[in-house]
Write a structure and sequence with these properties.
By secondary structure, the protein is an alpha+beta fold. The chain has one domain. It has a nine-stranded mixed sheet with strand order 1-4-7-8-9-13-12-11-10. It has a two-stranded antiparallel ribbon with strand order 2-3. The chain has a two-stranded antiparallel sheet with strand order 5-6. The longest helix is centred in the last third of the chain and has 25 residues. 33% of the residues are buried.
Length: 253
């Protein structure tokens, strides 16, 4: 089942540039891209829908739309709607994802995936912490950073391995779309990141709650810049083609 929600106008991620709509990223899919419940960084919307349906045939998807606004010198105009975010719920398997896409003109691909909460669904047996941890290490290798607690812990992976972890790890490992969390001085050098916070109810017990976030910081910045340049071009073209007799060009005397 798919629901569509139009969220109207909003602002570009990382607030780097013009005021327009929330963003995400865009890039070709690659074998080493992080994934969460089968949804991978770099996927298109149709690929996300197909992957989600393959994982759980009872999947329920809510699509949140947005649009950019720009100015022609007299009044505000807006672009066509585009998919900003998909909420993907898995009733049978359990779990829910929030999937963010990059904006036009280079958009339409996944730049951030977030999974939070418990398992839910119809699962009755949760994997022990060590089983969950070993499955992640088997898939992605040893994490670049790890913080253990008496019960559970946080893990962070980066890809490609020759790129930098641009996250400000001294304060928080939260992979939110917030420029204060990152060193964006050289975004092209930033690695894609995958974060897991595993929370068993007791030390060594089953993982009852978790947070998983995958993000491509470099692509968010790149597509923000592309969106900003595109909106400036649209605004310049609208100003150039607007009639010189449009009310408001000259004062009423």
């Amino acid at each position: 089942m798919i629901r569509r929600i139009n969220h109207g106008l909003c602002a570009v991620a990382f607030t780097l540039l013009v005021a327009c709509a929330p963003v995400a990223l865009a890039t070709a899919a690659s074998a080493d891209r992080f994934e969460v419940l089968g949804v991978r960084l770099g996927m298109t919307q149709s690929e996300v829908e197909a992957s989600a349906a393959s994982y759980d045939p009872e999947v329920k998807t809510t699509i949140k739309l947005s649009r950019f606004s720009y100015f022609d010198g007299w009044k505000s105009k807006s672009t066509d709607d585009f998919t900003k975010t998909m909420i993907v719920a898995f009733p049978a398997k359990g779990g829910e994802l929030e999937v963010d896409f990059s904006p036009p003109p280079d958009g339409g691909r996944v730049v951030r995936i977030s999974r939070r909460g418990g398992y839910g669904g119809r699962k009755t047996e949760f994997p022990p912490y060590e089983n969950f941890l070993q499955s992640l290490i088997q898939k992605y290798g040893e994490p670049e950073l790890e913080r253990r607690r008496s019960a559970g812990g946080e893990l962070l992976w980066a890809r490609p391995v020759d790129k930098k972890v641009c996250l400000n790890t001294e304060s928080s490992w939260s992979l939110t779309v917030n420029e204060t969390n990152y060193d964006l001085s050289k975004p092209d050098e930033c690695a894609r990141l995958l974060y897991y916070n595993l929370e068993p109810g007791t030390p060594g017990g089953p993982v009852q709650r978790l947070t998983a976030v995958a993000i491509d910081v470099a692509e968010i910045v790149r597509t923000d810049l592309a969106a900003s340049a595109w909106l400036k071009k649209l605004s310049d073209e609208a100003r150039a083609t607007r009639s010189p007799t449009t009310p408001g060009d000259a004062p009423d005397l």
